[in-house]
Design brief:
Layout lengths: L2 H24 L7 E2 L10 E9 L6 E7 L1 E3 L2 E5 L10 H7 L3 E6 L2 E8 L3 H14 L2 H7 L7 E10 L14
Antiparallel strand pairs: 1-2, 2-3, 2-6, 4-5, 5-8, 6-7, 7-8
Length: about 170
């Protein structure tokens, strides 16, 4: 998949993603955690988290909704960008940070993060593809290895609010 075809997917889903993020934030996480993803080839009860991070160039705070899985006491997110040839901005920003913040439903956490390697990466990747089959299509459509980010909660923090975001990223 080229960056152009990935952009088409984002454009098609941009309104849905923007509305999803707003619903999640406005409800304090009571809504938006579980969404039906059958329209994009996944399961009816897809789980979503919010990830808060600082822009490495702008210094602005961004909040991005992402599918997630939980494995071994860590939360896993996938830097797929719909199979684009470039990594998503949120991933590039997290890579520059020592910690990240995430929210699952009505609970938010400050967390450490890491990228699994070798056999562990393969195990985690297979788990995520089982949860979200479209990731296999995304990987098949790009030459880059799609990164996995594993977040380990360090402490509970306040849930995210719309006002926390000082930047709005094009989804």
């Amino acid at each position: 998949m080229s960056d152009e075809s990935s952009a088409e997917i984002r454009d098609t889903r941009a309104d849905w993603m923007t509305e999803h993020r707003a619903m999640y934030l406005r409800s304090g996480g009571a809504e938006g955690h579980i969404m039906d993803l059958t329209a994009v080839g996944a399961h009816p009860f897809g789980t979503h988290c919010l990830v808060k991070y600082t822009g490495r160039k702008s210094g602005k705070i961004f909040i991005t909704p992402l599918c997630y899985g939980a494995i071994g006491g860590e939360v896993v997110i996938v830097a797929s960008k719909g199979g684009a040839d470039q990594h998503p901005a949120w991933y590039l920003n997290i890579r520059e940070a020592d910690e990240v913040q995430f929210q699952i439903a009505t609970q938010a956490f400050r967390a450490s993060w890491r990228e699994p390697q070798g056999a562990e990466r393969e195990k985690v990747w297979n788990f995520m593809v089982d949860c979200y089959p479209f990731y296999a299509n995304y990987q098949a459509s790009t030459e880059r290895t799609i990164p996995l980010v594993m977040m380990k909660p360090l402490e509970a923090i306040d849930v995210f609010r719309e006002a926390d975001a000082t930047g709005v990223r094009q989804l």
